[in-house]
Amino acid sequence: MTGANGFLGRFLCLAWLERLARTGGTLICITRGADPAEARQRIVAAIDSGDENLSVRFRALADDHREVLAGDVGDPYLGLDRPTWSRLADSVDLIVHSAALVNHMLPYSQLFGPNVVGTAEIVRLAITARLKPVDYISTVAVTALPGGGFIGEDVDVRAASPSRALDASYANGYATSKWAGEVLLREAHDLCGLPVTVFRSDMILAHSRYAGQLNVPDMFTRLMLSLVATGIAPRSFYRLDAAGHRQRAHYDGLPADFTAEAITTLGAQVTGGFRTFNVLNTHDDDISLDRFVDWLVASGHPIERIDDYDDWLARFEAAIESLPDNQRQHSVRPLLSAYAHPAPARPEAQPPSEQFRAAVQSAGIDGFADVPHLTESLIDKYIADLRRLGLLAASPSHG
Fold first, then answer.
1. Which class for 371: exposed (0-12), middle (13-18), buried (19 or more C-beta within 10 A)?
2. 349 has which bridge partners?
3. 146 pLDDT above the threshold of 50
4. Is 74 strand, coil or helix?
5. pLDDT score recorded for residue 271
6. Which of 30, 54, 175, 383 sits most deeply, having the most CB atoms within 10 A of its CB?
7. Which of 160, 365, 191 is nearest to 269 (CA)?
């Protein structure tokens, strides 16, 4: 497994340890570090970030079922010495490739090494000595087509999107680097018969149970912090109808614990072929950014709704600038361009994800009979976690 110290990676690591503990298997984690001890500490630091129960459970499993190697996916042979690399080529049964440089502001040229070359090195390992199935963590941004529309789960990405334009638009470089990874894996499957399962995630939200387990730098966490800290929100984040009313809308994110369990369960089941899952919350349930603000208000946070969107945006930006340094640094300030205009009001997820939902319903995933709805308790947990991290005051206030 690569990327075990990442936000999703730590929960994939835990889910695989739980699974391997039942069979006596071993999870081999390749993580950057000067030596295995430093690499191991990077994973431990990611786990030890808020919940003692999580830390205790992880250590109990890791002691008997985990090996950590210091390496770098962007280097030849994953940065490993040749004897170690050859050992992995001979002995590994499955590769989970979740490592990536996730940065929506960097251009493709700066993401090519870690994200594209890194995937090529994974392919090299996967086809050496014997074929090893690969679970590849991609992004739903790959599905968007320039002329509109989305790539389906059973469509060859090379045929649907044979080339990608490089530009300065938000997340263009990251999306293109993950598209390139999918292309490499498709080629390896066609040429060598490599079994591959691609998981295209959208926003991976906080863990629904473990305290402090949220991705502080992501757009969603920054927005939740900013709304509560400034105490203002638009009447709607989406375009109003002709009568000026809010419309049904949808937010595609999924909690990290469900995402990790789904990827681990489905990835373990596929040993042949090439399958792709768009890992999305597809419910037409009117649970959207507007609903999240409703829930925040219901929980006692004094948030004023501003009727005019442009007025809100101007006041919001000014209020963020006046926040204390620590809050301003972790606010949505660097990503405000994403909120320059109200979003289209769509009642459900756009990219097709019927195969993913059907697979979840039939897979018997621990604790989940279906793709979950987002809940008020998860939004409340965001605020509790942000308080735990010292990024919000102990009681609701206006910043």
1. buried
2. none
3. yes
4. coil
5. 80
6. 30
7. 365
Cα 167 to the chain's mean position, in Å?
A: 23
> 7-204+254-279 adopts what CATH topology?
Rossmann fold (3.40.50)
Classified as helix, coil or strand, 66 is strand
The string of DSSP codes covering 339-393 is GSSPBP--SS-SS--HHHHHHHHHHTBTTBSSPPPP-HHHHHHHHHHHHHTTSS-
Task: Give span(s): CATH 3.40.50.720, the chain.
Answer: 7-204+254-279
Query: What φ, ψ does residue 274 adopt, rounded to 5°?
Result: -135, 115
Q: ∠ CA 322-326-328 to the nearest 5 degrees?
A: 40
Residues 300-309 as b/e (b if ≥16 CB within 10 A, e otherwise) read ebebeebeeb
- The count of other CB atoms within 10 Å of the CB of residue 56 is 10
pLDDT tens figures, 214-241: 999 999 999 999 999 999 999 999 999 9
Q: How far apart are CA 398 and CA 30, in angstroms?
A: 44
Please choose, from the candidates 326, 311, 287, 327, the residue with its C-alpha nearest in 3D space to the C-alpha of residue 233.
Answer: 311
Q: Rounded to two decimals, what is the model's pTM?
A: 0.94
What backbone torsions phi and psi does residue 305 show, to the nearest 5 degrees?
A: -95, 125
Do 203 and 374 form a contact (C-beta atoms < 8 A)? no
Tell me the C-alpha distance between 225 and 246, whole Å: 23
The label of the residue with tokens 């375009």 reads 239
Return the pLDDT at 398. Answer: 42
Any residues with CB less than 8 A from the CB of 375 and at least 6 apart, and which? 208
Query: How many residues comprise the chain?
Result: 399
The neighbour count for residue 232, using CB atoms within 10 Å, is 21
User: How many Å apart are CA 103 and CA 173, to the nearest integer?
Assistant: 8
Q: Token pair 């939902």 is at which residue?
A: 357
Confidence of residue 399 (pLDDT cuts 50, 70, 90): very low
Cβ contact 123:185 at 8 Å: yes
User: With contact defined as beta carbons under 8 Å apart, do 3 and 199 qualify?
Assistant: no
How many whole angstroms separate alpha carbon 135 and alpha carbon 266?
A: 9
Q: Alpha helices, DSSP H only, in the chain? A: 7-21, 36-47, 52-65, 82-91, 108-111, 118-127, 157-160, 172-192, 219-230, 256-269, 289-298, 309-321, 325-329, 354-363, 376-388
